[in-house]
Amino acid sequence: MSTDADDAGDREQMEKIDVRVPSSVLESIDEEYPDRGYATRSEAIRDSLRDWLNPSPELSEEILADLERSREQRDRGETVSATEARERLGLDGEE
Asked: Is 64 exposed, middle or buried (0-12, 13-18, 19+ CB in 10 A)?
């Protein structure tokens, strides 16, 4: 491994590693990373590794059930957009 100072945004010293991946995976990464807001392939891969080390918590069954009820309400037309809700409540952004 060698040190790599290509990311001035990270305060921690960077280490360079070599990883072999199938070319199709690399092609997919190269196609996707700009669309996901990353400036470089390395930045996208670092973020993926962080997610792997610190996975998002799983949603509880209760929250999943609430989300499903919300989807059903939306599908039945029982919800309104945030814009419509503000209009109905007379909230026009003025404090």
From this structure: exposed
Task: Verify that 79 and 39 share a domain, yes or no.
Answer: no
Dihedral, CA atoms, 53, 30, 25, 45, nearest 10 degrees? -10
pTM of the model: 0.50
pLDDT per residue as tens digits for the range 48-70:
999 999 988 888 999 999 999 99
E strand residue ranges, the chain: 2-3, 15-16
For residue 66, give Cα distances in angstroms to 17, 58, 69, 85. Answer: 43, 14, 5, 20
Position 73 pLDDT exceeds 60: yes
Are residues 70 and 49 part of one domain? no
What's the gap between Cα 13 and its chain centre? 25
Are the CB atoms for 1 and 13 separated by under 8 Å? no
Sign of the Cα pseudo-torsion (19, 24, 25, 28, in order)? positive
